Every structure is written in structure tokens, then in C-alpha cells.
Amino acid sequence: MSKIILIGSPNSGKSLLFNRLTGLSQKVANFPGITVDVATGKLASAPDLSLMDFPGTYSLQPISGEERVATEYFSKALDDPDVTQVLCLVDITRLEKSLYFTLQVVRECARHGKRALVVANMMDVLARHNIEVDLEGLAAEIGAPVLPISARTGDGLDAVNDWLRNPVENRSENTALAETPDTLLRGTAHQLAGKYGPRGDLLVKTQARLDSFFLHSALGGFAFFAIMFLLFQSIFTWAAPAMDAVEAGLGALADTVVPMIGPQLAKDFTSDAIFSGLGAFLVFVPQIFVLTFVIGLLEDSGYMARAALICHKPLRLFGLTGKSFIPMLSGVACAIPGIYAARSVDSPMKRLLTYMAIPLMPCSARLPVYTLLIAAFIPNTTALGGLVGLQGLAMFCTYFFGMMTGLIVTGLVSRTREDHYTDLPFVLEMPPYRLPALPPLLRNCWNRCRHFITKAGSIIFTVTVVVWFLGYFPNYGADLGASWLGQIGQVVEPLFDPLGLDWRYGVAIMTSFLAREVFVGTLGTMFGIEGADENMVPLVDQIQATGLPLASGVALLFFFAIALMCVSTLAILARESGSYRLAAKMFLAYSAIAYLGAIGVFQLVSLFTG
Amino acid sequence: MSTSLWALRAGDQGRITGFGDALAESYRIRLLELGFHPGETVSCLQAPAFGAPKVFRVANTVFSLDDEVATHINVETDLA
Known about the structure:
The complex is a heterodimer.
Chain A: E1 2-8, H1 14-22, E2 26-30, E3 37-43, E4 46-53, H2 65-79, E5 83-91, H3 95-112, E6 115-121, H4 123-128, H5 135-142, E7 146-148, H6 157-165, H7 175-178, H8 182-196, H9 205-214, H10 219-257, H11 264-282, H12 285-301, H13 303-316, H14 325-333, H15 335-341, H16 348-357, H17 366-377, E8 382-383, E9 388-389, H18 390-416, E10 427-429, H19 438-472, H20 484-491, H21 493-496, H22 503-511, H23 518-526, H24 537-545, H25 550-562, H26 567-577, H27 580-609
Parallel strand pairs in A: 1-4, 1-5, 5-6, 6-7
Antiparallel strand pairs in A: 2-3, 3-4, 8-9
Chain B: E1 2-4, E2 13-19, H1 25-34, E3 41-46, E4 54-58, E5 61-65, H2 67-70, E6 73-76
Antiparallel strand pairs in B: 1-6, 2-3, 2-6, 3-4, 4-5
């Protein structure tokens, strides 16, 4: 099958064009080791041709390691004999920023004997301003045909389809370009942009007006908080019912399937291992879908760049960039969509730092653990003359502690790294405000969910089954305390001794690796209380009755605020970063800090409380 | 008057005269690729408070640059 590469600079409307040309027949693959997708789809007008949507980039001369991988991948694709054509998209209204890249692409096509077709997008904007451009003249200069289109209105796409199906030979025209080095190409691009670029003011006045509002020091800040609040709320108001539905659906399915199974062991395995394992990762899918959708809306509308600008200065203090904010905010709901959202951080070093910060954000899975511990150890009284509830204050402090720790970690790590100048500069294109197009947005949400299920699901499922196995045998689920897991807990009890905790807490901590909130249910089981995850009161009473010291409670809060006890986060971190080593290193480092810090906290609080 | 791009306030214009020596070569190249050529006129569209990155327009494209980059771009504000 013949392949066509679609390539273009960022914000030139590439996703929309890809969607227009391929319809719905797409699949997405990752670059090995980096977080860039290459979607492939059959051309709707010619199913024997497949179109590959390459990541948007400003240049084929890479300045970061990641850009180098993407550029090399492009070169490698050009060596593929099946690749016959390259479709290079330029935003005609902003020819200056895309022409150098276009010339590089045309040159590479000439070097590799591939046909190049340049497509000038946004012709509708020029028409609105009654501006004409000499595309034939431009085509003659760059040595490749240039076709006018509007990806938004669909104008000109028939001609593009016709060309792709029956390309006219144009390889020979590019020979002069094939020898031109980058330095000369830059000058040529600048000159051609001046000669053929549209003359006149194409900046929509509304962009300036909207920017004066969204970047205003007071109103812009207010709008920012309102939009971020809505983003955060969307996870709870839109995703939560869907998550409940996934759980209920799986529960109903289990109730139907399990009674049909004969032997008790197979029954338990199906109900507790298979269905729990499926539930363990399927429950995240609605969150990922909703957050990808909302973030996509922000990106496509043009607001994301403004939000990054607003957050940049304060986050730079901690080695991060403005683009780190939304992934970190998402991390307050759940680290998994947060890690996905970190794809928008284009600087590899800053993305790594963002990855480090996200698991320290106080995610919603920590909430049941914090609620239990605070209810058990912090008196339900008020302070400051009745103004502040002590338990609420403790919750706030724990949340704040997690966020600050995230920033401190990135601040420290960024200062130990010396690869500052191999990183990308903060030069962020501010795209015009646009109404987002729904089909590419939904396609992206679907691809993201599919990626999660296929890439991380298997890891999460396997770990869930292993933990079930250890907790079930050798006494067939009769007593968790006497299971292999319980026995391991007793063996490693000395580890939890410095925190003033016995082996039952150790077992609960070990199972919380599946998901932090499992700590509550497991601890309930260890104390012989069923349904502790639904109603914590009997468990709170039980913990208080055992006389566990306050120091242990605070140490546990500290431990859970830091420790990366979440197999799903680790799985997706490994997949997204392309590095199992990074996930392992982060798990070990945060476990060590959490454990040693918790011992310190235990000692400190013990000093004051006796 | 010769100054840095970062010194422009909202509404100011300047013509790029060159890049400071302290600017990394890779950053300089990327700026050239995006259209920040010597001789090009740049206008500052927004200069948000608290030292946030400023918003500049070059040709028909709008970019936001922070002080780490913009202080190393030299401009001439006397365009006459």
C-alpha cells in the first residue's frame, strides 16, 4: 500500500486536514520512547493510499533530543519505498513561520526522490480580507506544487485528493534545492515569505481584544481561575457518574457470570481477580476521556497558550514551565490523566520534571486514606475561636504539603541538571482564538483511552491478579491475615515498627499499591470490619480503641502524601515516558523519602506528645 | 534607541538588530526559523503584570517570549 506523509508546523490546522482527508479510519502508534503519536488513516477518496499524520514541528533542524528523534523518524520514513508522497501543510496567513520548514521538507523529498505537495491552508481568511497571493510563483520558486485549501470549510480538498491519487511527476524540479544547506535555506525562506506572503494585517481584531481580557492582570487572573475550576470540576461532574457506571456495569456482569461458574476457586478467581483487575483500570477511562476532551477544547480554542503564559513565571521558579500547570492540576484529581496531559509540555526536561511533580499532587485516591486517618487522630473540634475546624485544617495542610513537596522536588532536581541549553526556549506561539472542531477532538479522546487500555491495562491487571493470588492462598480466601500476603506482612513487620505500626497496617500499605484507597478496605478486613470503604466509622472507632499513637497517624499521613503507591500511575508513567527505569527510580525514590520522612515525623511528633 | 526586546512595553515597536552573545546558538536558530530576523519589525502586544512572558508580533504571527530569551534580542526602537 502506498503511503503519504502529512507534515506541517504547529497550529497550521493539520489535525483538521487529516480528519477531512481520512474520515474515521484511523489508528495511532507511538514513536518508540517518546510521547508523540503518528496517526495513520486510509484516504477516504482512495482507500489504497494511507496517510500518516506526523507531529507538528517548526524545523527539521532539531534543538532538543526529542525533536531529534522525531526528525530522524521522518528521515527514516522517507527511506521507506512505500512512502511515495509528502503532503506539507503551511498556514498561508503566517507564511514566515512555516516556509523555512516547508523548504526543508521539499529539500528532503528531493534528496529521497519523493514527490512533495505543499498545501496552503487558511485561504478562507485571505478571502475574507480580500487579499490575493501568487501561489504559482511560490510553487515555481520552491520547486513543488502549492494548492490552496481551507481545512475548515473544505474548499480545495477535491484538488488535493485528485493530486494525491494522480500525482504529476515533480521530482526533477527540486534538484537545485537538494544541495542547499540550512543556513542558506533560512535566508531563502525569509526572502520568499517577504515576496509571496500576504500583505496586510491579518490578525483578527478579536484576538487582540480577547488577549487584552485574558492576559489582563486582574480580569485575566479571574478568568484563569474560573476556567481551571471548571476543568477540575468537569472531572467530578462529568467523569464521576461514568466511573460509577463502569463499576456498576462490571458489578452487574460479575453478578451474572459468577453464579454460573461451578468450583468455588474459579468463582472467587473470576469475581475477585478478573473483575477487580478489569475494574482497576477501566474505571480510569471516563476520567481520561473527559480530561482529554476538556484539555483539547482549551488547546484548540487557543486558550491553552494563554494559560501557559499566565503560569509560566511562578512555575519557572521551580524549574517548570507554564505548560506544566494543567497536567499538575489534573494530577490533583488523578495522576493518570495528568501524566497524559503532560504531553503538551514540549520541552523534554520540563516534561520530566512535570512527571516528577504529578504523583505528589494530592489525588482523589488519597482522600479516603486522609479522611480515615484524620477522623481517627485529629479531634473534631474548632480552633481560632471557632473559625476553623481542626479536621478541615489538617486536611488542607496535608493537601498543601503534597503540592509544595511536588514543587520543592522539581525545584531541587532542576537545579542539579546541566542540560539547560539543550532544552527548548520559552517561545510560545499564540494561536488565534478559534472555535474547536469536534471530530478531531473526539478522535483524540478515543485514541487516548485506547492507548491507556492497551498499554497500561495489562500491567495493572497483572499486578491486581498477583496481589489477589497472594491474599487468597493458601487458605482459599478464608482469612487475609493468614494468607501469604498476611505472612509477608508479619515477616516485614520490623519495617513498620519505627512508625509505631503493626503488621496489619503493613499488609494494608502493601495492598494500597493497587490503588491508595484500597488501604481503607484492607485495614477494615484486617480488623474484621466489612465494608469499611463505604462506612469508615467502625474502623475509626477500632483504630482509636487500639490506642495507636498520634505520631503513627501523622507518620502515615506523611507516608501517603509522598509515596508513589499506585500501580496504574507507574504503568502509565513507564509507557508515556518510554522508560521503565524512570518509573522504577521514581517509585524507589518517593518510597524512600516517604518511609524515612515518616520515621522522622513519628519521632518528632512523639517528642511533643510523649 | 538601542535596547532589548524585553524592554518594550505594550504598544511599542522595534526593529531587530541582532542577538546577544549569551543567547545559545540553538535558541538563535529557532528564533530565526520562526521569523525573528534582523531587520524585521516586532511589536509588543501585551506586557502582562508580575514579569510574565510578553506577547510579541512578528509578521502576522504572535509569540510569547519570556525574559530569558527576550533580553538577548536586540532591537532599535527609533524606527524613523
